[in-house]
Amino acid sequence: MADDPRRPLRSMTVRFIHASDLHIDSPLIGLDRYPGAPAGELRSATRAALANLVDLAIAEKADFLVLAGDLYDGDWTDFNTGLYFRIQMARLRDAGVPVFVVKGNHDAESQITRTLTAPDNVVEFPSSHAHTHTLPHLGVALHGRSFRDRATVDDLAAEYPDAIPGMLNVGLLHTSLDGRPYHDPYAPTRLDVLRRKGYDYWALGHVHAREVICERPRVVYSGNPQGRHARETGAKGCELVEWDGKKLSAQPVALDAVRWAQLSIAADAMDGISAFQQHAIDRLAGLARDAGERLVAVRVSITGSGALHRLESSQPGRMESELRAMASEVPGARLWIEKVACDLRPDYDRARLAAGPDAIGELLRLIDRAAADETELAAIGRRALEDLHARLPSELKSGADPLRLLDADVLRMLLPAAEATLIARLLDGNMPA
Amino acid sequence: MRFEKLLLRAFGPFTDRVLDFEAHAPAGLHLVYGPNEAGKSSALRATTDLLFGIPLRSDDDFVHKHADMRVGAVVRADDGRRVALMRRKANKAPLRALDEATGQETDAVLEADIQAVLTGGLDRALFESMFGIDHARLREGGRQLLAGEGELGASLFQAGSGLSGVRAVLDRLDSDAQALFVPRGQVRSINETLRRLDELKREQRDRTVRPREWASLEAAVDTARKRDAEAAEQMRAVRDEQRRLERMRTFLPQAARHAQLVAELAQLADAPQLPADAAERRLRAQAALGGAQDAAARAQREADELAARRAGIEIDTGVLAQAESIARLHHDADRAAEAERELAAGSSEAAQLARRLRSLLARVGQDVAIRDDDASIDALSRESSVSAGTAEAVRAAAARLASARQAADTALQRAAAAEGALAAAQQALDALPAPVDDSALAAAHAAALALGDIDADLAAADARIAQFDARIADGARGLGACDAQALRGAVPPPLGHAEALAARMANLRAERESLDATLAVMAAETDALQAERARLAASGEVVTASTLAAARARRDQAWARVRARLDGGADAARLDAGHPTVRGAPELRTRTARVAKAVRSTGATAELFEASALFEAPARPELAVPGPASSGPGLARSDAAAAPGNAAASVAADVAALDTALREADRQADLLRADADRAARFASIERDLAERAERAATGRARRDALLADEQGAIIEWSARLASAGLPFMEPDALVRWHRQRDAWLSQCALRDEAAGTRDARRSLRSASWAALARALDVGGSGRAGAGVETLAGDADAAGPFDMQAPMAVLLQAAEARLASGRRAAESRAEATRALRQAQAHLARERATADEARSRASAAEQAWDVAIASLRLPAGAPAAQAEARLRELDEIERLHAQWHAARDSLAGRSAFLAARAAQIEALALQLGRPLPGGNSGGTSGSLLVAALHGQAQAAHDAHAQACALDERIDRARQAVAQHAVAADEAARALAAMRAAAGVEHDAQLPAVEQRAARRQALSDELHALEQQMLEAADRPLDALLREAQGHDLDAVARRLEELAAEGATLEPQARQAQAELVEARHRLAQVDGSEAAAATREAAESALARLRGEALAYARARLAHALLEHALAGYQARAQGPMIERASRLLDAMTAGRYPRVRAEEDGERRVLAVERADGKALRVEHLSEGTRDVLYLALRLAALDLHLDGNPPMPLVLDDILLTFDDARSAATLAALAALSRRTQVLLFTHHEHLVDVARRAVTGGALAVHRLDADAQPVSRSIQ
Question: Do residue B121 and residue A316 have CB atoms under 8 angstroms apart?
Fold first, then answer.
C-alpha cells in the first residue's frame, strides 16, 4: 500500500501517465458539416488527442506511460491507424519513455493489433495470463493482462499476482468493473478484488467517463482522451500520477481537441426570437470560454412553451439555424452546433381542443387515433414515407440510434412535431397577407 | 365564460373606464361603438390581453407606463362562479383578485385554474382564430374560398376552425418535402446527401489499407531487395576486375622507368648533398664582401672634411647670453616713443579741464574757496557734486509744491461757491407758506375709506333685498299664500305625517295601477282567447269533454225518464224537475237490457234495439258531470213527450228522446276522439277564460277597495290641510311644499340678514360722513372751507353738501385737501432738506480749503529745505533750482574727465622710467657706453637697436656649428657598420667551402653541379613511386612483383571481355533496383496518413445530415397526410349540419336573395355553391366579393353554432366585420348575431355610428346593448332596449 512502512524510502519521484480508450481514428458522431461550421479538427481529433498525450509525456519527462486498452475501434481495418500509433510510440522511444499496454475488447478483435509491430519501448501484456513487468531503477512493478477475445467475461483481475513489496505496484486492467451505463460488461470484477491485490494504483480502461473509483488504493478510469459523441461531454484526457516514495498524487490533464457540451435552454420567458438570440449567444460564449482554444461541439435542448413553440413549429429547424448563426457570432469562439432538440409545448389545452366538435378537434382526434392505432399509423406512414425509407442507407437504419421511418415508434415520435407544424402554419395562414 | 364587466383601469388611452355588460341583462349582443381616437382598438386589445396577458412590448403604454398597465374584468365561469380579477403586466402572478367595491386590485393572487376559465384552454392565436373575426379575417376567408375555388373539404375546414390557407399549407408542406427529397431526383438535399454518402463509402474502401495488404507490400519489398542485391554483386565483381586490369595497363611503363632511375643514382652516390641554391648563395656572399669594403673607405673621407670646416667658426657669447633681454627692449621701442608723445599732449588737456572746473565752481558759489592747485580743485568738485537722490528729491519737492498750491486754489473756489448755494437755499425756504394741520381730516378720510365703496354696497344691498322681496313674494304665491307673513306663521301638517300618508297613497295608487295593468293584460288575453275560441268554433263544431259530459247527462236523463215511465213515473217527475241521478255504466247496461226486453214484449221499434246495442259501447260514467238543466233538442222532445196522455206514446217519445240523446252522446264522443287537439285547446281556452274571469272579478273588487281607501285618505288629508289654512294638495305635494317652504323661509332669513347688514352699514356711513364734513368744515352748515372750495369746486356747483350727497364727492374733496397739504409739506421738507445739504456742503468745502492751504505751506517749507542743499535762497523758484542742478551735473562730469587725464599721464611716466633703468643696466653689463638724455626714450632705443643686431649675428654662427657636429657623427658611424658587413660575408664563404670539402672558393662550382644532378634523379624516383602507389591498392613491392608476370597486350584483351560482361549485367541490375524502389514506394505510401479516417469522418457527418433531413422530410410528409385526412374526415362529419345552418344564416343575411348553401360535384371534387332565389346555383368564383364574405361569415357562424352544441360558450369578439355591408345586410347580420348571442356572448366593436341605429332597428327583444367609448365622456354602458 502507499504508506507501507516496509518500503524503502526513495529520494526519486516517479511520474507516470495513465490513459485508455484512445479509439484512434474513430469518427465523431452526429456532426453535420453545415455551412460555416469549423470542420478542421474533426477528422483528426482522436489523433490530435494521442499526439497531445505523447507531447505531455515528453514535456513532463514521464517515467512511463500505461494504456489500459482499446487503442483502436475493433471494426476499423485501416492499417494507417496502426502506423500512426507506431509513429507516436517511436517519439516516446526517442524520449526514453517506455509504454505498457493491455489490449481491450476492441483491440482483441482488431486486425491492426495482430499485424502491427510496435517499437521496442512498447510492452504489451500477454493475454494468456497475468504478467508483471518491473522497472528496478524506478522501484516500479506493473501488472496486467490483455483481452484474448472481445467477449471476455471472466474476472481477469482475480488472477493478477499480489503486489511486490517495496515497489510501486500499478495494475492495468480493461474492465467494466461491476457494471457501467452504456458499456458492455467485459472482464467484470469488484473493488474488493482489486483492493486485495495490494497495489498502489489501478489504471482502468473501458469506461469513457473519468471516474475515481477509490482513493486508497487509487482506482481510476481515466476516460477517453477525446469525446466521440454528445454523451461524452466535458474535458477528456489522462491522469498524470506522481509517487514520491510515500504519497501518491494525481491530476487529470485535458488532451481533447474537440470538446462536447450540452446546453439546456428554458424558453418559457422568451417572447420572441430576439430574446432567444441574446440568451443563446451569452450561453454559447460561456461554453467557449470554458473550452479555451478548443473547438466545442454543442448539443442544445430547448424546453418550455410560448412564442418559440409556434415559431419552431411553423418553421421546423428555425431554432437550429438561429443557434448555428449565433455560434458563428460569438467573438473568438469556435463552436459547432451538433444537434438541437426542441421539446417545446403549446400554450393551449390540447385535450380540451381535441374534445371539440370543430375542425381543429377533428385534426387532433385523427392524430390521437393514429397514435393509438398502429395499423392506421403504419398505413399513413407507408404512404407518406415509403419512398424515402427505401433509399435510406443501412447504417442509418441500424446501430445504437437507428432511424426506421416506418416503425410505429418513430412515427409516433413524429406525430407531435407534425401536429405542431400544422397548427402553427394554419395559424400563420390565418393572418391576412 | 362570459364577461359581466370589463374594467379598463389603465390601458391605452383609458383610465378607470368600465364597460358593464350585465347592467342590461339579458342582452347578449354588445355593440361597442368607439369613434376614431376613442380607443376602440385599445379596448379590443384589452379584451384579449385580459385573457392571455399583456405582451412584453405592448404598444398600449402611451399614457400608462408598462408597469402601471391594468385591465380587469368580472367574468361568469361556466360552472357559475363569478370571478373579479385584475390583469397586471408582470411575469409573476399577473392575475390578482379585484375588489369590486373599490375597483382596486388586492394582493390575493388568483389560482392557475382561473387562466383556464378565461381562455377555455386556448392560446391567444387559437382564440383569435376561433372566437375572433375582424374585417381582414373576413376578407381573407372570402379570398380563401375563391383561392380554393370553393373546394368543399378545405372550405368547411377553414370555416370550421377559423383558420385559413389550408390549401396553401398543404402546398407548402409538399414544397418543403420536395425541397428535401424526390424519389428519382438528384439535386434535392437528401438525394445529394445519399449520393455523397455512396461516394464517401467508395473513397473509404479505396483509401483503407488492410493489414494483410500491408504485409503483402512489406514482403514485396524484401523480395525486391534480395534481387537487387544479387544483381549488384555480379556487377560489382566485373567492375572490380576491370578496375584492376586498367590499373595494370597504366602501371607497366612506370615500372620500367623506376628501374632506370635507381641505376643512375647509384653512380652519383659520392656527390655531397648541397642545398639546391648553393651556387646562388655563394655568388651573393662574394658580392657582399666587396661592396662593404668600398663603402667603409668613402665614409671615412667625409668625416675628415667636415671636422676641418667646424674648426673655422667664431661666436660672441656675451651678447648671445643677453639676447632675450635685448630682444624684449627692442620690441618695446615703439611703445616708448608713443608714451613720450602722449605725455606731452596729456598735460595740456588736464590743464584745460582744470580751468573749466574752476570757472564752474565759481558760478555755483565756490569761487571764494578756490585755490590754484589740483587738490583744491579736486576737493571743491567733490564737495559740489549732487547725488541722484538729491536731484530727484528737489524735483519731487517742486512737483508737490506746485500740486499743493493748485489744490489750495481749487478748494477756495469751491468754498466760495458753497456759500452762494447756502444763501439761495435759505431764500427758497423763506419763500414757502407756513404748514397746516390736516390730521383730523386724514383720520376721517381713512375711516371713510375703510368702509369701501359704501354707497355702491348700500345700493347693491338694496337691490339684493328687493330681489329677496320679489322672490319671497313669488315663493309665497307659489306656496299658495297671498300673505307672506301669514305664510311665515302657518302651521302645516307635520312632514312625517305627510310623508307617511304620501307613501300610503302612493302604495295604494301603485297597487291600483298595477291591478289596472294586470286587468288590462287579462282583458287583452281574454280577448285573444275569445278570438281563438271563435276561430276554433268557426272551423266546425267543437266538442269538448264538458259538452260530451253534458250530452251524456242528457242521455242519462232521457234514460231516467224512460226508466221512470217503466217504473211508474215518480222518477220521471223528479227528473223533469231537473234533478237527474248519476249512475254507473253497469247499471245503465242492465237497465237497458231490461228496457229492451220490455220493449220487445210490448212490440217496440227496432230503433230501440239499435239504441240498446249502442249502449254496449264503452262509456265513461266517471266523467259524467251535471249538465245544463235543459239543453238539447232531444231532451226538449222528451219533455214534450212526457206530457200526460197516452202512456205508450209517452214511452215511445221518451225512448225516442233517449235514442236521440244516445246518438248525440255517441256522436260527440266520436268527434272528441277525432279532433282531440282542437277539443283540448278549446277546453283549455274555456278553462283559461273562466279562470281569467274569476281573477278579473277578484281584481276588480280589490281595485274598488283600494280606490275607496285612497278616497278616504284624501278626504282626511283635505281636512287636515284646511285646518292648517292650506289649499288642497297631495300628501307628496305637501312633502314637496314643506321642502319649498323651508327653502322659502331660508330666503326670508337671508333677506332679513341682508337688511340688518345694510342698516348697520348705513349707520356707519352717516357717522363717517359727519366726521368728514366736520374736518372739511362743510357738513350741515352748508359752508365749505377755503381748501374745499378750491379742491371741490364741482361740489359747490352742485349745491351745499348734505347727507344725501354721494360719499365719493366728500371723499374727493377730502382727498384734494389732503393732497394739497401733502404737496406743501413735501415742498417745505424738500427746501429744508436742501438748506441742510447746502450748510453741510459749505462746511465740508471750507474744511477742505483749510486743509489744502496747510498742505501748500508744508510743501513750501520742504521746498526751501530741498533747495538749501543747492545753495539757493529760500523761496527760489523751481526753474532756478533746475538750472542749478544742471550746473552741478556739469561740474561732476568735468571732474571725472580731469581725473582720467591725470591718471593717464602718471602711467606713461612710470613706463618710461622703468625702461630707462633696464637699458642702463644692460649697457653696464656688456660694457657699452650709457646713452645720453632720457635713457627710456629715444636715445636708449638707439643703443638697444645696435645690440639687437649683434645678438642676431651671434645666434646665426652658433646654429651653423651645431649642424656640422651632427654630420661628423653620422659619417663615423657608417665606417663602423661597413666593416661589420664585410666580416659576415667572409664567414659565409668559409662555411660553403667547408660543406663542399674544398679549400678555395674557385673549386666550389664543380662540386655544386654533381650535387644538383643527384638531387634531381632522387626527386623523380620519389614522384614516380608516389604516383604508382596512388594508383594501386597494394604495396609497391607487391605491384612491382605482379607486373613482372604480365604483358600489356594480354591485359588489353581481358579488359575487352569484361566490358562485354558488364554491358549484359547492367540492365538486369537496374531493373532489380527499380523494382525495389517501386516496392518501397508502395510501402511508403502506407505512412500512417488519415485519409481513410477522414473519409470515415465525412461519411459520419453525411449520415448526421441525412438523419436530420430525413426527419424533416418525414415531419412535412406526415403533416401533409394528416391534414388531408382531417379535411376529408371533417367534411364527412360536418358537411350536413354546417351547410344546413349556413343556409339559414345566408338566407337571413341576404334577405332571401340566396336561400341555400349546397355542395356540388365538379369532376372528382365537391365544391361549395349558393343557390339564388330563382333556384340557380352559383359557384364561389361567380359571387361578388361582398357575397363571398357573407358566405364565409355564414359558414363561420354556423361552425360556431355547431361548436356551442357540445362546448361551453366563449365570448365571440368581432371587429368591424360589417365594414363593407350595406345597411340592409348589416341589419340582417346583426339580427343573426343577436340570435347567436342567445347561446354565447357576442362583442361587436365598430367605428361606425350609423350601425348603432341600424342595430337598434334590427335587434329587438332586449338582445342588444350599446356601449360608447367616447374619449371625453365617461363611457358608462347605456342600454338602448
Answer: no
0.80 surpassed by pTM: no
By CB atoms closer than 10 A (0-12, 13-18, 19+), residue B890 is: middle
CA distance A373 to chain B (A): 14
* CA–CA gap between residue B685 and residue B528 (Å, rounded): 10
Any A CB within 8 A of B166 CB = yes
The answer to whether B1097 contacts A43, with C-beta atoms less than 8 Å apart, is yes
Which contiguous run of DSSP H or E holds residue B107?
strand B104-109
- Is the CB of B147 inside 8 Å of chain A's CB atoms? no
Which 3-state string (H, E, C) describes B567-614?
HCCHHHHHHHCCCCCCCCHHHHHHHHHHHHHHHHHHCCCHHHHHHHHH
The rounded distance, in Å, linking the Cα atoms of B320 and B543 is 202
* Partner residue opposite A310 with nearest CB, options B125, B190, B1091: B125
Residues 6+ apart with CB under 8 A from B177: B1113, B1116, B1117, B1120
Which pLDDT score is estimated for B574?
53
Residues 6+ apart with CB under 8 A from B997: B272, B1007
Q: Which residues on B lie below 8 Å from A76 (Cβ)?
A: 1096
Q: Give the three cell numbers for residue A253.
A: 490533464
Q: Which of residues 123-162 of A touch B (CB under 8 A)?
A: none
The answer, for A426 touching chain B at a CB cutoff of 8 Å, is yes
Best mutation target among A81, A310, A314, A421 (most B Cβ atoms within 10 Å) is: A421
Amino acid at B1081: H
Q: Which of A28, A367, A427, A428 to mutate to test the interface with B (most CBs of B within 10 A)?
A: A427
* B1128 in A contact zone (CB under 8 Å): no
Q: Average pLDDT per run of 10 along chain B, which is 1281 residues long?
A: 90 89 74 85 90 87 90 89 90 86 86 82 85 86 81 86 86 92 85 93 91 90 92 90 82 79 80 83 82 78 79 78 84 83 80 81 68 76 76 86 88 88 87 80 86 86 88 81 75 76 81 86 86 78 76 82 66 49 48 53 46 44 41 42 55 77 80 72 82 86 86 81 76 77 84 88 85 74 39 41 76 85 85 88 89 88 84 83 83 84 81 83 83 76 83 78 79 81 82 83 81 84 84 78 79 87 89 90 86 90 92 94 92 89 91 90 87 90 89 90 84 89 90 89 90 89 84 41 31
Residues of A in contact with B1133 (CB under 8 A): 362
Residue B1088 distance to chain A (closest CA, Å): 4
Distance set, CA B1256 to CA B4, B20, B1264 (Å):
21, 19, 8
Produce one character per residue of B1192-1231: b if its CB has 16 or more CB atoms within 10 Å, e if not.
Answer: bbbbbbbbbbbbbeebebbbbbbbbbbbbbeeebbbbbbb
In the block, residue with C-alpha cell 496486467: A144
Q: State ipTM.
A: 0.89
Detail the DSSP E strand segments found in A225-279.
Answer: 237-243, 248-254, 258-266
Average pLDDT, chain A: 90
Q: What is the DSSP letter of B930?
A: P
Q: How far apart are CA A83 and CA A118, in angstroms?
A: 9
Q: What is the dihedral of CA B485, B486, B491, B495, to 10 degrees?
A: -70
> Out of A32, A86, A432, whose CB is closest to B1104?
A32
Say if residue B845 is exposed, middle or buried (CB neighbours under 10 Å; 0-12, 13-18, 19+). buried
Chain A from 316 to 335: CB within 8 A of any B CB: 316-317
User: Which residues does chain B have within 8 Å of residue A367's beta carbon, measured at their own beta carbons?
Assistant: 1122
> Do B140 and A116 lie within an 8 Å CB cutoff?
no
Q: How confident is the model at residue A339 (pLDDT cuts 50, 70, 90)?
A: very high
A27 touches chain B (CB under 8 A): yes
